[in-house]
């Protein structure tokens, strides 16, 4: 039977992947008048919209209402124990996704002039990408295929019906007892959310929980989750897993003992890996290693200069906001010939537990390892912040990591930390000194005032020390 030959096309830009990085780059290029073809074999919007940031924050929002009901007596309000109606929670999650989806839709991008092809794409040579229906030759090619859950080689795991961030929101019923492998941001956020909604939750972590966050601040968040009833087993290794009659049996061990945990559901949250399978990268002369695609700090393939790699698959970090920055780097470098790099700006990261843990650039431990005793740490506690006191949310602090008057990192733990750290991010991104964080009027009472107070604390000895007092004493003699 005769079949139609694939359509042949020549364009300025091909983008593989319609997640945050791919969509932003495609939109920018199309709005600047370039011919753009966008390939996406799955859902438009990628992981963030469909199974990551949006559904997880919607779930966390629902869980906060349950927590607020339990805490209300502290504020003089009497309520009953909240009851979770899981289908309604799922409806809330779906509504959030559906409300945002039009921004990432095929129709919107076609309206911008992008040719959207909903098929799997792969390289056929260094400047050509093909799918079932088209063969596209391009001046530039972007790989923005994102990442997927990394599944550890635990005996028995491949035989059970485990959950990942792609499926945990759509379970038929609220888990009675949720076992979670991994205490990174995803694992800890889901642990608190499901515990607040009424599930028993046990988290198993080979290292320390929130290991990449500032240690002091991670421990505050871990303590908060434990106080809410989440069991967190640090320094525990999963040995094997099985499932029978709807019950998971997870064998774990630490340095001293081995034991078996049981639960109704198992969530695997042990990290993510870049998506490179099926791209025929060898045909595109795109080199890889065990971590993924080899790229420069300019986000170009080390072996094929016409190929750019953006987002999670670039191996520079797995954040939606970083993917958006990568798209900006591409537009600046490739289209405007400016000098942006993936590392041009400090990278913030937030774990949206309650309290939130926000990290910018280096942690205190990382800064000490790199700069030794030349760093200084300035802090201010939420316990001394009037807004936090008024609202009864005083757990946390702002920590600034300073070297020679400039910021090299920061961490904030507390209510709204992800919003508060943006002030520090702006200052550090624009090369401002710590003093700039003292030189503005902060509206009262706000939590963001902790940043100004932490920065001011750095100058306490300078402003109020003996030399300053001597100077003021001399100045007082002037009529």
TrEMBL record:
Gene3D superfamilies: 3.30.390.30, FAD/NAD(P)-binding domain (3.50.50.60). The keyword Disulfide bond applies. Residues 12-326 form the FAD/NAD(P)-binding domain. Residues 348-454 form the Pyridine nucleotide-disulphide oxidoreductase dimerisation domain. Transmembrane segments: none annotated. Keywords: Disulfide bond, FAD, Flavoprotein, NADP, Oxidoreductase, Redox-active center. SUPFAM superfamilies: FAD/NAD(P)-binding domain, FAD/NAD-linked reductases, dimerisation (C-terminal) domain. InterPro entries: FAD/NAD-bd_sf, FAD/NAD-binding_dom, FAD/NAD-linked_Rdtase_dimer_sf, Pyr_nuc-diS_OxRdtase, Pyr_nucl-diS_OxRdtase_dimer, Pyr_OxRdtase_I_AS. Its cofactor is FAD. Pfam families: Pyr_redox_2 (PF07992), Pyr_redox_dim (PF02852). Belongs to the class-I pyridine nucleotide-disulfide oxidoreductase family. PANTHER family: MERCURIC REDUCTASE. This is Dihydrolipoamide dehydrogenase. It comes from Henriciella pelagia.
